[in-house]
Amino acid sequence: MSLDWIYYAISWILLTWHSAWDAIGVPIDAVIGTNFAWILAIVFLVVSVRVILFPVFVKQIKSQRAMQALQPKVKELQEKHKGDRETLQKEMMELYRKEKANPLMGCLPMFLQIPVFLGLFHVLRRLDPAKQSKTLYGWTVEQFDSASNAKLFTAPIAGKFGSSADELARLGANGTTVKIIAAILVLVMIATTYLTSRQMILKTGWAEDPQQRMIQRLMLYGIPASLLISGSIFPIGVIIYWVTNNLFTLGQQQWVLRKFPPPVTAKKATAPAATRNPVQPAKSGGLFGRGKAAPTAPVKETAPKVAGPKPGAKPANPKKSRPAKRQG
Protein backbone atom coordinates (compact mmCIF):
# COMPACT_ATOMS: atom_id res chain seq x y z
CA MET A 1 0.00 0.00 0.00
CA SER A 2 1.37 3.41 -0.98
CA LEU A 3 2.07 5.84 1.83
CA ASP A 4 2.11 8.88 -0.44
CA TRP A 5 -1.06 10.24 1.18
CA ILE A 6 0.80 10.43 4.51
CA TYR A 7 3.75 12.23 2.88
CA TYR A 8 1.38 14.70 1.20
CA ALA A 9 -0.46 15.32 4.50
CA ILE A 10 2.76 15.86 6.48
CA SER A 11 4.15 18.15 3.78
CA TRP A 12 0.92 20.18 3.64
CA ILE A 13 0.88 20.73 7.43
CA LEU A 14 4.56 21.70 7.49
CA LEU A 15 4.24 24.11 4.57
CA THR A 16 1.04 25.64 5.97
CA TRP A 17 2.63 26.37 9.34
CA HIS A 18 5.81 27.67 7.69
CA SER A 19 3.72 30.08 5.58
CA ALA A 20 1.82 31.15 8.71
CA TRP A 21 5.01 32.00 10.61
CA ASP A 22 6.33 33.79 7.55
CA ALA A 23 3.13 35.86 7.37
CA ILE A 24 3.35 36.68 11.09
CA GLY A 25 6.88 37.98 10.62
CA VAL A 26 9.12 35.19 11.94
CA PRO A 27 12.46 35.60 10.13
CA ILE A 28 13.01 33.15 7.30
CA ASP A 29 16.77 33.64 7.42
CA ALA A 30 18.83 32.07 10.20
CA VAL A 31 18.99 33.87 13.54
CA ILE A 32 21.60 32.53 16.00
CA GLY A 33 22.23 29.86 13.40
CA THR A 34 18.58 28.75 13.56
CA ASN A 35 15.76 29.03 11.01
CA PHE A 36 12.94 29.48 13.50
CA ALA A 37 10.15 29.42 10.92
CA TRP A 38 10.96 25.80 10.01
CA ILE A 39 11.62 24.77 13.63
CA LEU A 40 8.22 26.19 14.65
CA ALA A 41 6.60 24.44 11.68
CA ILE A 42 7.82 21.10 13.08
CA VAL A 43 6.73 22.02 16.62
CA PHE A 44 3.23 22.93 15.46
CA LEU A 45 3.04 19.77 13.37
CA VAL A 46 3.03 18.07 16.78
CA VAL A 47 0.30 20.41 18.04
CA SER A 48 -1.84 19.69 14.95
CA VAL A 49 -1.49 15.92 15.32
CA ARG A 50 -2.22 15.98 19.06
CA VAL A 51 -5.35 18.08 18.58
CA ILE A 52 -6.58 15.57 15.98
CA LEU A 53 -5.81 12.65 18.32
CA PHE A 54 -7.27 14.23 21.46
CA PRO A 55 -10.51 12.12 21.33
CA VAL A 56 -8.31 9.01 21.15
CA PHE A 57 -6.37 10.24 24.18
CA VAL A 58 -9.63 10.62 26.13
CA LYS A 59 -10.54 7.02 25.24
CA GLN A 60 -7.08 5.96 26.39
CA ILE A 61 -7.62 7.54 29.82
CA LYS A 62 -11.07 5.92 30.16
CA SER A 63 -9.61 2.54 29.23
CA GLN A 64 -6.80 2.93 31.76
CA ARG A 65 -9.36 3.79 34.46
CA ALA A 66 -11.40 0.71 33.53
CA MET A 67 -8.31 -1.50 33.63
CA GLN A 68 -7.35 -0.12 37.03
CA ALA A 69 -10.84 -0.74 38.42
CA LEU A 70 -10.58 -4.38 37.26
CA GLN A 71 -7.31 -5.06 39.08
CA PRO A 72 -8.98 -6.76 42.11
CA LYS A 73 -10.90 -9.12 39.78
CA VAL A 74 -7.75 -9.80 37.79
CA LYS A 75 -5.96 -10.69 41.04
CA GLU A 76 -8.75 -13.09 41.99
CA LEU A 77 -8.51 -14.82 38.60
CA GLN A 78 -4.75 -15.15 38.96
CA GLU A 79 -5.13 -16.81 42.35
CA LYS A 80 -7.99 -19.02 41.13
CA HIS A 81 -6.19 -20.27 38.00
CA LYS A 82 -2.66 -20.29 39.34
CA GLY A 83 -0.57 -22.64 37.22
CA ASP A 84 -3.18 -22.83 34.41
CA ARG A 85 -2.02 -20.06 32.10
CA GLU A 86 -4.33 -20.97 29.21
CA THR A 87 -7.49 -20.87 31.32
CA LEU A 88 -6.31 -17.68 33.00
CA GLN A 89 -5.89 -15.95 29.65
CA LYS A 90 -9.36 -17.03 28.50
CA GLU A 91 -10.99 -15.85 31.72
CA MET A 92 -9.18 -12.52 31.59
CA MET A 93 -10.14 -11.89 27.98
CA GLU A 94 -13.75 -12.70 28.86
CA LEU A 95 -13.54 -10.27 31.78
CA TYR A 96 -12.17 -7.52 29.52
CA ARG A 97 -14.88 -8.18 26.94
CA LYS A 98 -17.65 -8.13 29.54
CA GLU A 99 -16.41 -4.91 31.16
CA LYS A 100 -15.57 -3.32 27.78
CA ALA A 101 -11.93 -2.75 28.71
CA ASN A 102 -9.16 -2.94 26.12
CA PRO A 103 -5.61 -3.59 27.40
CA LEU A 104 -4.11 -2.30 24.15
CA MET A 105 -5.96 1.03 24.25
CA GLY A 106 -3.18 2.50 26.41
CA CYS A 107 -0.75 2.19 23.48
CA LEU A 108 -3.17 3.28 20.74
CA PRO A 109 -2.22 7.00 20.63
CA MET A 110 1.43 6.06 20.27
CA PHE A 111 0.67 3.56 17.48
CA LEU A 112 -1.42 6.15 15.61
CA GLN A 113 1.50 8.57 15.68
CA ILE A 114 3.89 6.09 14.10
CA PRO A 115 2.70 6.91 10.52
CA VAL A 116 3.22 10.63 11.25
CA PHE A 117 6.73 9.93 12.54
CA LEU A 118 7.59 7.78 9.52
CA GLY A 119 6.08 10.37 7.17
CA LEU A 120 8.17 13.18 8.64
CA PHE A 121 11.26 10.93 8.58
CA HIS A 122 10.68 10.26 4.87
CA VAL A 123 10.00 13.90 3.99
CA LEU A 124 13.09 15.21 5.80
CA ARG A 125 15.29 12.62 4.13
CA ARG A 126 14.26 14.15 0.80
CA LEU A 127 15.81 17.48 1.78
CA ASP A 128 18.95 16.87 -0.21
CA PRO A 129 20.07 19.82 -2.37
CA ALA A 130 21.55 17.36 -4.88
CA LYS A 131 18.13 15.89 -5.71
CA GLN A 132 16.74 16.82 -9.12
CA SER A 133 13.08 16.34 -8.17
CA LYS A 134 12.28 19.13 -5.70
CA THR A 135 8.52 19.39 -6.25
CA LEU A 136 7.41 16.01 -4.90
CA TYR A 137 4.48 15.93 -2.38
CA GLY A 138 3.38 19.48 -3.22
CA TRP A 139 6.65 21.31 -2.50
CA THR A 140 7.79 24.18 -4.68
CA VAL A 141 11.45 24.51 -5.61
CA GLU A 142 11.73 27.62 -3.41
CA GLN A 143 10.21 25.82 -0.41
CA PHE A 144 12.45 22.79 -0.96
CA ASP A 145 15.61 24.91 -1.10
CA SER A 146 14.55 26.88 1.98
CA ALA A 147 13.92 23.70 4.01
CA SER A 148 17.15 22.12 2.76
CA ASN A 149 19.08 25.04 4.22
CA ALA A 150 17.09 25.17 7.48
CA LYS A 151 19.29 24.73 10.55
CA LEU A 152 19.20 24.43 14.33
CA PHE A 153 22.27 26.17 15.75
CA THR A 154 24.00 25.70 12.35
CA ALA A 155 23.12 21.95 12.22
CA PRO A 156 20.78 21.13 9.25
CA ILE A 157 17.41 19.69 10.27
CA ALA A 158 17.95 17.03 7.58
CA GLY A 159 21.31 16.03 9.08
CA LYS A 160 21.77 13.24 11.63
CA PHE A 161 24.39 11.89 14.00
CA GLY A 162 25.29 9.14 11.52
CA SER A 163 25.44 11.36 8.43
CA SER A 164 28.26 10.48 6.06
CA ALA A 165 30.88 13.00 5.01
CA ASP A 166 29.29 13.15 1.55
CA GLU A 167 25.84 13.93 3.01
CA LEU A 168 27.27 16.63 5.26
CA ALA A 169 29.11 18.17 2.30
CA ARG A 170 25.90 18.36 0.25
CA LEU A 171 24.11 19.99 3.19
CA GLY A 172 26.99 22.37 3.78
CA ALA A 173 27.29 21.27 7.42
CA ASN A 174 30.11 20.79 9.88
CA GLY A 175 30.30 17.16 11.01
CA THR A 176 31.33 17.94 14.59
CA THR A 177 28.51 20.47 15.08
CA VAL A 178 25.92 18.06 13.69
CA LYS A 179 27.08 15.26 16.00
CA ILE A 180 27.04 17.50 19.09
CA ILE A 181 23.55 18.90 18.40
CA ALA A 182 22.19 15.47 17.44
CA ALA A 183 23.71 13.80 20.52
CA ILE A 184 22.22 16.39 22.88
CA LEU A 185 18.79 16.04 21.27
CA VAL A 186 18.96 12.23 21.41
CA LEU A 187 19.72 12.35 25.15
CA VAL A 188 16.81 14.76 25.69
CA MET A 189 14.60 12.48 23.60
CA ILE A 190 15.54 9.44 25.73
CA ALA A 191 15.00 11.32 29.00
CA THR A 192 11.60 12.72 28.04
CA THR A 193 10.46 9.35 26.67
CA TYR A 194 11.37 7.74 30.00
CA LEU A 195 9.63 10.49 31.99
CA THR A 196 6.35 10.20 30.09
CA SER A 197 6.08 6.52 31.04
CA ARG A 198 7.33 7.07 34.59
CA GLN A 199 4.82 9.86 35.13
CA MET A 200 1.86 7.58 34.35
CA ILE A 201 3.16 4.65 36.39
CA LEU A 202 3.83 6.86 39.43
CA LYS A 203 0.22 7.99 39.38
CA THR A 204 -1.57 4.75 38.48
CA GLY A 205 0.80 2.15 39.93
CA TRP A 206 2.09 -1.10 38.47
CA ALA A 207 -0.55 -3.35 36.93
CA GLU A 208 -1.44 -6.72 38.49
CA ASP A 209 -1.93 -8.31 35.07
CA PRO A 210 1.41 -9.81 33.91
CA GLN A 211 0.78 -8.69 30.32
CA GLN A 212 0.03 -5.14 31.41
CA ARG A 213 3.08 -5.12 33.67
CA MET A 214 5.24 -6.34 30.78
CA ILE A 215 3.91 -3.53 28.57
CA GLN A 216 4.65 -1.02 31.33
CA ARG A 217 8.24 -2.26 31.65
CA LEU A 218 8.66 -2.12 27.87
CA MET A 219 7.40 1.46 27.79
CA LEU A 220 9.52 2.50 30.77
CA TYR A 221 12.85 0.86 29.92
CA GLY A 222 12.74 -0.85 26.51
CA ILE A 223 11.77 2.04 24.26
CA PRO A 224 14.15 4.62 25.82
CA ALA A 225 17.01 2.11 25.59
CA SER A 226 16.29 1.41 21.91
CA LEU A 227 16.45 5.14 21.15
CA LEU A 228 20.11 5.21 22.17
CA ILE A 229 20.89 3.24 18.99
CA SER A 230 18.09 4.22 16.62
CA GLY A 231 18.48 7.91 17.45
CA SER A 232 21.68 8.02 15.40
CA ILE A 233 19.71 7.52 12.16
CA PHE A 234 16.99 10.08 12.94
CA PRO A 235 17.28 13.46 11.21
CA ILE A 236 17.52 16.36 13.65
CA GLY A 237 14.09 17.57 12.54
CA VAL A 238 12.57 14.21 13.50
CA ILE A 239 14.20 14.34 16.94
CA ILE A 240 12.76 17.85 17.42
CA TYR A 241 9.34 16.39 16.62
CA TRP A 242 9.83 13.52 19.10
CA VAL A 243 11.03 15.76 21.94
CA THR A 244 8.18 18.23 21.38
CA ASN A 245 5.69 15.38 21.34
CA ASN A 246 7.07 14.05 24.65
CA LEU A 247 6.85 17.48 26.29
CA PHE A 248 3.27 17.83 25.04
CA THR A 249 2.46 14.41 26.48
CA LEU A 250 4.00 15.28 29.86
CA GLY A 251 1.88 18.42 30.14
CA GLN A 252 -1.29 16.72 28.93
CA GLN A 253 -0.91 13.75 31.29
CA GLN A 254 -0.18 16.02 34.24
CA TRP A 255 -3.35 18.01 33.56
CA VAL A 256 -5.52 14.92 33.15
CA LEU A 257 -4.11 13.16 36.23
CA ARG A 258 -4.67 16.25 38.38
CA LYS A 259 -8.18 16.89 37.07
CA PHE A 260 -9.24 13.22 36.98
CA PRO A 261 -7.15 11.37 39.60
CA PRO A 262 -7.06 7.57 39.46
CA PRO A 263 -9.96 6.00 41.40
CA VAL A 264 -9.39 4.10 44.64
CA THR A 265 -10.02 0.44 44.04
CA ALA A 266 -12.71 -1.29 46.07
CA LYS A 267 -10.16 -3.65 47.60
CA LYS A 268 -8.22 -0.77 49.11
CA ALA A 269 -11.33 1.07 50.21
CA THR A 270 -12.94 -1.87 52.05
CA ALA A 271 -9.87 -3.60 53.49
CA PRO A 272 -10.09 -4.02 57.29
CA ALA A 273 -7.92 -1.62 59.20
CA ALA A 274 -6.15 -4.47 61.01
CA THR A 275 -4.99 -6.07 57.74
CA ARG A 276 -3.81 -2.92 56.03
CA ASN A 277 -0.17 -2.04 55.75
CA PRO A 278 1.04 0.97 57.72
CA VAL A 279 -0.16 4.09 55.97
CA GLN A 280 2.53 5.70 53.85
CA PRO A 281 2.50 9.44 53.20
CA ALA A 282 1.01 10.11 49.77
CA LYS A 283 3.16 11.73 47.13
CA SER A 284 1.99 15.14 46.09
CA GLY A 285 3.38 14.76 42.59
CA GLY A 286 6.59 15.32 40.68
CA LEU A 287 8.06 13.46 37.73
CA PHE A 288 11.03 12.19 39.72
CA GLY A 289 9.03 11.00 42.73
CA ARG A 290 10.54 13.73 44.91
CA GLY A 291 7.32 15.50 45.79
CA LYS A 292 6.79 16.48 49.37
CA ALA A 293 4.92 13.98 51.47
CA ALA A 294 1.39 15.00 52.38
CA PRO A 295 1.15 16.00 56.04
CA THR A 296 -0.34 13.31 58.23
CA ALA A 297 -3.11 14.12 60.67
CA PRO A 298 -1.97 14.23 64.31
CA VAL A 299 -2.92 11.16 66.32
CA LYS A 300 -4.98 11.95 69.38
CA GLU A 301 -3.91 10.22 72.58
CA THR A 302 -6.67 8.25 74.22
CA ALA A 303 -7.02 7.75 77.95
CA PRO A 304 -6.29 4.19 79.14
CA LYS A 305 -9.39 2.14 79.77
CA VAL A 306 -10.08 1.11 83.37
CA ALA A 307 -11.23 -2.45 83.76
CA GLY A 308 -14.66 -2.75 85.39
CA PRO A 309 -15.49 -5.14 88.26
CA LYS A 310 -16.00 -8.77 87.38
CA PRO A 311 -19.57 -10.08 87.46
CA GLY A 312 -20.51 -11.31 90.99
CA ALA A 313 -17.58 -9.61 92.69
CA LYS A 314 -18.27 -7.59 95.83
CA PRO A 315 -17.84 -3.87 95.38
CA ALA A 316 -14.69 -2.52 96.91
CA ASN A 317 -15.20 -0.35 99.98
CA PRO A 318 -13.07 2.76 99.58
CA LYS A 319 -13.54 3.57 103.29
CA LYS A 320 -11.39 0.62 104.33
CA SER A 321 -8.43 2.05 102.56
CA ARG A 322 -8.69 5.35 104.40
CA PRO A 323 -6.52 5.87 107.52
CA ALA A 324 -8.40 5.73 110.86
CA LYS A 325 -9.12 9.01 112.58
CA ARG A 326 -7.29 9.67 115.88
CA GLN A 327 -9.34 9.87 119.03
CA GLY A 328 -9.14 13.21 120.66
Describe this structure in words.
The chain contains twelve helices and two strands. It is mainly alpha-helical. The radius of gyration is 31 Å and the shape is elongated.
Please tally the β strands and state the result. 2
Radius of gyration (Å): 31 Å
Rounded to the nearest angstrom, the distance between the terminal CA atoms is 122 Å
Main sheet makeup: 2 strands, antiparallel
- Summed over residues and divided by their number, the pLDDT gives a mean of 80
Percent range for helical residues?
55-70%
**Order of secondary-structure elements:** HHHHHHHEEHHHHH
Uncertain stretches: 265-297
Structural class: mainly alpha
Strand order of the largest sheet: 1-2
Shape: elongated
- How much of the polypeptide forms β-strand, as a percent range? under 5%
How many helix segments?
A: 12
